[in-house]
Each structure stands twice: as C-alpha cells, then as structure tokens.
Amino acid sequence: MSSSVYAFSSDFPDESGWDSSSIRSSSSDGSIRTISGSQAPACPEPDRVILSYSGYLKYPLDLTEADVNRLRRCEELNDRGIDVLLAIAHADAVEKGDIGENDVVVLPTAFEESFQYVKDTPMPLETFARAHERIKKYHSIFWGSRLILVPLQRGGHWFLAVITNAQLAQARNAVQVPPQEPNEGDSQPDQHPFGILILNSWVRNADVEFMAECLKGYLAHSWNAIQGGKLQYVYTYYPKCPRQMDGVSCGLHIVRNAEIMMELATAEKVRKGAQGVRALTMSEYNDIFRPSVAANDSQRLLRISSLEQHVQLYKSRRKRYDESCESH
After folding, report:
1. What is the DSSP letter of 39?
2. What are the φ/ψ torsions at residue 65 (nearest 5 degrees)?
C-alpha cells in the first residue's frame, strides 16, 4: 500500500483548483450531473467524507461512504472513485520506482466535464479555456511529461485517453526529420511517438471519437497557451484492450488500464503495436493486459479492498492528527 499524502485540512475541497461551488455526482444510470451549491441537499450520513487523499498528485480528493457502497453493490464506479483509485495507482508506481513524480500526469475527472455540454466541433475557445483552467496546477509539467492519463466520459461511459511522449511534441513549423530506419525490434521507423491512445472497454462509437477530437483540440489550445504557437498534428490510435462483460464496469477498466500504462516500457509497447511500428503478438498482448485479471468481479473486489485499507489508514492518521492538534 502506498504511504502517500492524506489531506486533513477541513477546507481542502476549495483548494482543488476547480469550481468547488458545484457538486458532481453520478446518477443511477451512470450519467453525470452537476448540482449548484445553493441547490445541493444537506449531506446524509452515507455521503460523509471517509477518505481525503492526494498521493503525489496536485489535487486533494474526497471519497464518501456512498462512493464505496456503489462498488459493494456492483454499481458503476463514479468520478470520485475513479479519481482516488487513479491517485493510489500513481502513488504506488512512484513509490515502487517505476516512474518519477512528474513522469506521468493524471488529470482529474473534472477536466472532461468542460466538454460535456458541447455537441459539435470545432469547439468554442472558452470551452478549452475552461478545461485549461481546471488543470492549471499541471501547466508547469504538462509538456515535459512522458505520459498523460485522461479519464473521459460521454453518454454515461468512461474510457481512458493516454497521451504518449508529450515531452517530444513539437511546434507545427519546427523542422521535423523523421527516422529513416526502424529501431531494434521494430518493423517500421518510429515516426509518431507523440500521440493519443484510446483504451476503451466498450464498443468504439461516435461519442468516443467525439471526445478524442475534443482532447486533440484541447492539446492545441494548451500548447499555444503554455509553449506558444501551433502544435504539430496529433494522431489518435485505438489499441486492443480487454472488454467489460457488463454495462457498469468501465471505471474499473480505466483504473486497470492506467496501472498498466504507468509501466512506461509497457506503454511504449502498446503504442508501437497500435501504430504498427512493432507487431504485438497475442502472447505479448496477454502478458500486458492479462484479460483474466481484468475480469470485472476480480477487479471490483480488488478495488474495494484497496479503498477499505486506505480508509482505515486515513482514520488512524486522522485520529493521531486530531489528538496532536488537541494537545497543542
């Protein structure tokens, strides 16, 4: 279990970097709705915060009893659950030495909310500006990272976008000399290390492709805002990955796929396989994704256990923190 940061400040939700005057919640059908602060009902006991977690990410995250109960009842993992489990996975990878703190950027689920009410492309600039503001704490490391994980949702279905090798992105007018020879083990020259992979546990449809286009538009906006100028063209790929066996396990697959991709050498294998740079055999695919491990029931039990362990550790540390405050 990661020994990462737990947040104890009573006012930490307002420090998160996005609009704390609204509450995002998942309805019974898995769709996302936003309730303004003035309309939000008083929190019943199941909605009390049982875990405040940030790990090595730049945003403190809340988890409630109701969020965990959704998993226990075999319902869909909601946005708060996805955020916390991704933060735990990131912390585990950092503490195992698989990645540096800033190698992998994990965007909060609040990022994608900016795109939910837009139906057509091209999107208004204010849409990208709003999304950009929501992740302002990542601006300084965004284009220096090796991997950016973006949970996206459309039509009640969650999937994972993976931006590979952001540190290799270039301006559109930069002189780009494509490699002429394949690297060792590759069958083709590796011409597009920077790109977007869509890991989707359900069918590919117009909603998924629309959100991929939204993300490409945001990247162009971010590059101009942070680096200046126009970003090179960004290609999108759809690697093969395990499929969910029901209609409620997409969030669990996001977390599982994110864990796999945080092994950076593995992420490169998946990228090259999707691009046709290097053939990915069925044996290699099984070694990477381990479809039997990705089975919905086993993942659900694993995530419930992880969250319960972190809740107990948080309670213990919270008790010591409160006792320390009282003694002073």
Report:
1. T
2. -60, -40
Q: Write down the pLDDT at residue 179.
A: 74
C-alpha 146/C-alpha 157 separation (Å) is 26
Segment of 53-62, 122-131, 150-159 carrying the highest mean pLDDT: 150-159
User: Could you give the CA distance from residue 199 to residue 196 in angstroms, rounded to a whole number?
Assistant: 10
Tens-place pLDDT, residues 125-155? 899 999 999 999 999 999 999 999 999 999 8
Structure tokens at 83: 């955020």
pLDDT digit string, tens, across residues 216-270: 999 999 999 999 999 999 999 999 999 998 999 999 999 999 999 999 999 999 9
pTM listed for this prediction: 0.85
Token pair listed for 62 = 């809340």
The predicted model gives 167-191 an average pLDDT of 88
CA distance 164 to 16: 25
Task: Round to whole Å and give the CA distance between 185 and 194.
Answer: 19
Length of the chain: 328
**Cα separation of the two ends of the chain:** 31
DSSP letters of 106-155? Answer: E--GGGGGGGTT--SSSPPHHHHHHHHHHTGGGHHHHTT-SEEEEEEEET
Residue 223 contacts by C-beta under 8 Å, 6 or more apart in sequence? 143, 169, 171, 229, 230, 231
Query: Which residue from 284, 263, 257, 262 is spatially nearest to 273, judged by alpha carbons?
Result: 284
**DSSP secondary structure string for all residues of 230-246:** PBPP--EE----PPPSS
Those residues with Cβ within 8 angstroms of residue 141's Cβ, 6 or more apart along the chain or in another chain: 102, 105
